[in-house]
Structure formats: C-alpha cells, structure tokens
Design a protein that fits this description.
Oligomer: heterodimer
Shape of chain B: globular
Number of strands of chain B: 0
Largest sheet of chain B: none
CATH architecture of the largest domain in chain A: 3-Layer(bba) Sandwich
Number of domains of chain A: 3
CATH topology of the largest domain in chain A: FAD/NAD(P)-binding domain
Order of helices and strands of chain B: HHHHHHHHHHHH
CATH superfamily of the largest domain in chain B: Cytochrome c-like domain
CATH class of the largest domain in chain B: Mainly Alpha
Helix content of chain B: 55-70%
Strand order of the largest sheet of chain A: 5-2-1-9-19
Shape of chain A: globular
Number of helices of chain B: 12
CATH architecture of the largest domain in chain B: Orthogonal Bundle
CATH class of the largest domain in chain A: Alpha Beta
CATH superfamily of the largest domain in chain A: FAD/NAD(P)-binding domain
Structural class of chain A: alpha/beta
Strand content of chain A: 15-25%
Number of domains of chain B: 3
Number of strands of chain A: 22
Largest sheet of chain A: 5 strands, parallel
Number of helices of chain A: 11
Largest interface: A-B, 61 and 50 residues
Radius of gyration of chain A: 23 Å
Helix content of chain A: 25-40%
Chain lengths: 428, 210
C-alpha cells in the first residue's frame, strides 16, 4: 500500500467501487429514491442546477430544493433593465420545470442548519433530514456606514435582481438632467466582477439619449477591475472616456474613490476627501456569503465558505457542500456561469458518493459576457482544471482588443443567446 | 506498485463486474474527467444535453461525432474563426474533445424552439424560406445536405431545424473570404456564386425544415 501513489489508489478503489455498484444496481432495480436524500438551499444559478443534474444522473436520489421565493429574477442581463432596454419580466423564471425532474420544491425560508443531526429547519418550522446538503445562498452585504434597509430603498443596490432593479431604473429615469449617476463599487471579491462596469456603460448609453447633461461617476475602492482594458477602450470609443466630455468618470481608490459613509436622507456619499450628491445613487456594498451560510458557521474570517475544490464539500462541516458566489472557489470568478459549473461538479461528486464511488476529476468552465452598449459586447471565457490542489485556468481569455464592430455586435447577440440557454439549463 | 500491475488489478475487477464495464473502467482512469463531466460544462451556452435555448447558439445534440471533433479541432488550432470557441477549445486535449464529441453525438437532436422569455430570435419568414428552397435547388446544396438538410454523415452536419440566427451568422462567416473559414471546395464554390441575400434565404429554408 505504501508504494501506491494516490492516482493508482484512486484507480483501484474506483474499480472496486464499480464492482460494488453493479451489485447494488441489480438488487435495487425498480426501487426509486432509496440511495439517499439531498437537500438544496437556494434555487438560483447554482442550486437549481445542482438539484437538476443530480436527478438527471440518478433518479434513485431524493432531492428537495428549498427556495423562499416562488420566482427567480436573473442578475445576469438585469443591467439591461436598469438602463431601460429590457423588461424585468424577461428576467423572471419559475420552478415548474424543475418539478418535472422529480425535484420537490419547497417555497420556504431555510433558517437553520444542524450539521450534527443533519437537519435543515425553515422559518415555518418544517424540518428536512439530509444525507448531503447543498448550500447555494448567494451573497449578503457587509456593513457600510449609513447603508441600512431603509437606505436601500433610497439608494438601491440592485445587486439582487427583482424589485431593486426596477427601483434603480425608476430613479434613473426620474433623475434630473445634469445630476450625476453615482455608483459606489465594492471591494474584491464580490458577485459578478465586471457587473458594476457593465452597469456604468449601459447607464452612460441611457444618459446619452435621455439626459445629455448627466454623466456616470464611479467611486471605486479598487485601482483596477475585471476586463478593465476592454471596458476603458470601449468607453473611449463610445462615451468619450478620458476627455472632459466623457459620460463616464471612474475615480479609483488611489485617487480618492474610497467611500467611507453614505447618507440616504441628504442623498450624499462621502469619500475621505470629498462628498458627492445626486438624486440617483447606486450603492454596491462589499459582500460576503449570505446569512444562512454564516449562521451555519460555514464561513471563515474572509466571510466566504472554504470548500474542497473537487466536491465543493465544506472544509468546516462534513456532508455540507457550498456552491456559487458564497463558496471560496479560489481561481473561479463569482459569476453565474461559474456557479452553474460548480453545481455540476458538486452534483457529480454527490451522485458518486451516494453510490459508494470516489468522486471523479472535476472540469470547470466560465463564460461571461458584458455589454458596453446594446450592440457592443465583450466576453471572458475559460476552461479550468484541478491541478496540484488548485483550480487553474488551462485555456481561455478575453475578447480580442482589436475586434471589429461586427464582432462586438455578434458578442452582444451571443450574450442574449447565452442567457436563453443557461436559463433553460437552470429552469427546464 | 507498477502501472502495469494496477491495470492488471483493474482488469480483474472489471471482469468480475461484468465485461461491459471493462472499457469504461479503463478509459475513465486514463482520461481524467468523464465525458459527462466535461460535456455538461458546455450546457451553459449550448443547452442541457446540447439542445440550445438561444437563437445564436447552435444545437449540437445528435450531430456526428466526427464533425464535432473536426470543428473543435479547428477551433483549438485556430484555423476556424470564432468569438469565443477558439478560446475555450484550447482548454481541452484532443482526447477530451473526442469524449465531448462522442457524448453529444449520442444525444437526441431537437429542433430549435423559442420559449416564453426568448427575445431577439429572428422569426422564420415563409416567403424567405420559399425563396431559399429555390436557391438550394439551383445551387445543388442538397447534393450534400440531403433531405432538406435533415441528412447527416461524418462530415456533414444536420442543418434542418437548426437555430435561424446561428445559420445566418455562419452563412455570413462562410461568405466572408477574409475570415478564411475552413470549408469544402464545393461549399466555397457555392459561397462565391450566391449573394448574402440568397444565403439568408437559404438559412430561412433550412431553419423551417423539421
């Protein structure tokens, strides 16, 4: 045994497991849902996919999805709604499709996880036992001085899609011509790294048409951001970036962009050196894993959930897996596509484990589009593998810096198709 | 322990488990990630099991494995122009591309279908489709794309019932000589002869066939 390397050992046990499995499968033919219970908390880009792909791979596993809302609003493409060229209804999805896979969908809020008794409890007091739990709760905001629940209604974050998205669009459309659209960007890491900059672009596009005296001011604690070269080149081309007529002004952390507090009553944002006032302010606070993950002590000091990259099982609690934005999947961005990909790795691992097999080797992909105008799209796409214990990019990259207008337009159209396909993958 | 011995043991276990498991055991151990693991990551854009939900993304379910391998190989080595596929294909080995291609080739084709939230999908126009039918007959597209584009073989993909916007995009690319899209000589000749308007009509024709 001592001479066996890890890979050989996996091969051996894999072969042995297959022997065991074939016997199990034969004896259990005709019996449904007796291989174990999986409970999934959160029905978004991560959780819905995990639930579906477990059922697609093995109908002998009982899957319950706990999601507090009866409908889901997609964050990807919701910036189009903010900028007024997309209806929020197109962002709305239901859970009927998932039920067809035999997933039990429960619209309650999960409020407690007990790793000792392997039980999830909802706000209504219902208890769900699990063999394996998947937590895909999304993000919550870190405290920011002056930004409470009341302030969110005056200075929307619109970082969870739905009513907040609609509210921010309303404020933008009612904004006085000449007022700046002020956006406060978050510190790393946060959900959707290019998201704030896509939003700034599309709002600038809106302003050109509707509020010619206004511009976007981004107050950023960071000195660089995702797809930065492509964004700034596009801004130069589309919005006069870098000139005194620019529709977008980006103030990085090093030049006073760091916001220290906000005041919703006076609609003011304070940086270390200055204050900014407007009738339309968008605050995207720093983020951490959502409340249920924190309550269940699945998070570490970073605020995110440490996990094993091959199974997404928590490093803190056994038999609990964390996927999506809440997980600390170092190497992968916090994007919808990454959540989809993580969910599939996690689903395959759980199916293997509940069948007494070793989880196989993972493969991950991210494909993420951003819009600079309704006809100008850019993307980042990459394939990742688990190598020497780390998630490493093995191929991929950004849209070409010198791409033609036709290519930018094609990527804008691909963005819409990306959305249709990934939503069909998630909800049907 | 030597590699050879491991194989011996795996082989013995495989026989014990039943002969049919032998090949899968051996290939899974050799290839790393399984075909399903690799292929499911494509579904975010190409839809579950390769049935696309978006008008500009092709459905790849049920297409010939060899065709998929060829196209992916061309994306990987950069000979086939693309916005995104060239970047992604470089992340896979030739063996992984073969696994992914085989996986999708075994799935069942489904004609393009818009759902309630679909936006920006170009609608199939009956007059355009009728015009396209005549172009197809004149240009003899049906010599290879037989049965109104339903036919497929190792080098020819099914085009009937494919997403219209995707077909239009591809026809524009094939027509654009500057892009140097790898294509059969017969395709190249047809592209020279036909106008972009003709090719858009041809796209409507094939998209309308089921």
């Amino acid at each position: 045994m001592s001479m066996l390397n890890r890979r050989s050992f996996v091969k051996l046990s894999g072969a042995a497991a297959l022997v065991g499995l074939s016997a199990t499968t034969v004896s259990r033919t005709g019996f449904a849902a007796d291989k174990g219970k999986v409970v999934v908390i959160g029905g978004g880009y991560g959780g819905a996919i995990a639930a579906k792909y477990i059922r697609m791979a093995d109908q002998g596993i009982d899957v319950t999805l706990i999601e507090q809302n009866t409908h889901y609003y997609s964050c990807p493409l919701s910036n189009w709604v903010v900028a007024g060229f997309r209806d929020i209804e197109v962002q709305k999805w239901g859970y009927e499709g998932l039920k067809k896979h035999g997933i039990k969908v429960v619209h309650e809020q999960a409020t407690e996880i007990d790793p000792a008794t392997k039980t999830v409890t909802t706000k209504g007091g219902t208890k769900f036992k699990y063999d394996r739990l998947i937590v895909s709760p999304g993000v919550n905001f870190k405290p920011m001085e002056g930004y409470d629940a009341e302030a969110m209604e005056k200075m929307p974050h619109a970082w969870n899609a739905g009513p907040q998205t609609v509210l921010l669009h309303k404020q933008l459309s009612e904004m006085r011509d000449g007022d700046p659209f002020i956006m406060v960007a978050p510190t790393d890491p946060f959900r959707c790294p290019p998201g704030p900059y896509e939003r700034a672009s599309l709002v600038a596009h809106y302003l050109m048409k509707n509020k010619p005296k206004s511009k976007v001011i981004i107050l950023d604690p960071k000195d660089k951001f995702s797809k930065m070269g492509l964004f700034t080149a596009g801004w130069t081309k589309l919005y006069g970036y870098g000139t005194d007529k620019s529709k977008i002004e980006w103030i990085p952390g090093g030049e006073g962009g760091k916001v220290t507090r906000v005041d919703a009553k006076t609609m003011t944002v304070y940086t270390e050196m200055a204050e900014f006032k407007s009738s339309c302010i968008n605050i995207i606070p720093p983020q951490k894993a959502n409340a249920i993950a924190e309550m269940a002590k699945l998070t570490d000091e970073s605020g995110w959930c440490p996990i094993n990259f091959d199974t997404f099982e928590s490093k803190i609690h056994k038999d609990i897996h964390v996927i999506g934005d809440a997980s600390a999947a170092t190497g992968l961005p916090k994007s919808g596509y990454a959540a989809n990909s993580e969910a599939k790795v996690c689903a395959a691992a759980i199916v293997a484990l509940l069948n007494g097999q070793k989880p196989g080797e993972p493969s991950y992909v991210n494909t993420c589009y951003s819009m600079l105008s309704p006809t100008y799209g850019i993307s980042v796409a990459a394939v990742y593998k688990l190598q020497e214990g780390k998630i490493k990019e093995v191929g991929g990259g950004l849209s070409a810096a010198d791409a033609s207008d036709a290519v930018r337009q094609q990527e804008a159209l691909y963005n819409e198709s990306w959305y249709q396909s990934i939503m069909a993958d998630t909800f049907s | 322990m030597h590699r050879k011995k491991v194989h011996m043991l795996a082989l013995v276990s495989g026989i014990m488990a039943g002969g049919f498991l032998l090949s899968s055991t051996a290939s899974a151990a050799e290839a790393g990630a399984t075909a399903a693991m690799l292929a499911n990551t494509c579904a975010g854009c190409h839809g579950t099991d390769g049935i696309s939900g978006g008008p500009a993304m092709p459905t790849i379910a049920g297409l010939p494995a060899n065709y998929l391998k060829t196209i992916m190989g061309e994306f990987k080595d950069g000979t086939r122009p693309s916005t995104i596929m060239g970047r992604l294909a470089k992340g896979y080995t030739t063996e992984e591309i073969a696994l992914i291609s085989d996986f999708f080739s075994k799935k069942k084709w489904a004609n393009a279908q818009s759902h309630a939230n679909s936006k920006n999908a170009t609608a199939i126009d009956a007059a355009q489709a009728a015009k396209g039918g005549k172009v197809v007959a004149d240009a003899k597209c049906d010599k290879c794309h037989e049965d109104d584009g339903v036919f497929q073989d190792e080098d020819t993909p099914r085009v009937a019932g494919q997403w219209l916007d995707y077909l239009i995009f591809k026809m524009q690319d094939y027509k654009n000589t500057a892009l140097k899209v790898p294509q059969e000589k017969k395709m190249e000749t047809a592209m020279e002869k036909l106008t972009l308007e003709d090719l858009i009509a041809v796209s409507h024709f094939y998209a309308s066939k089921k």
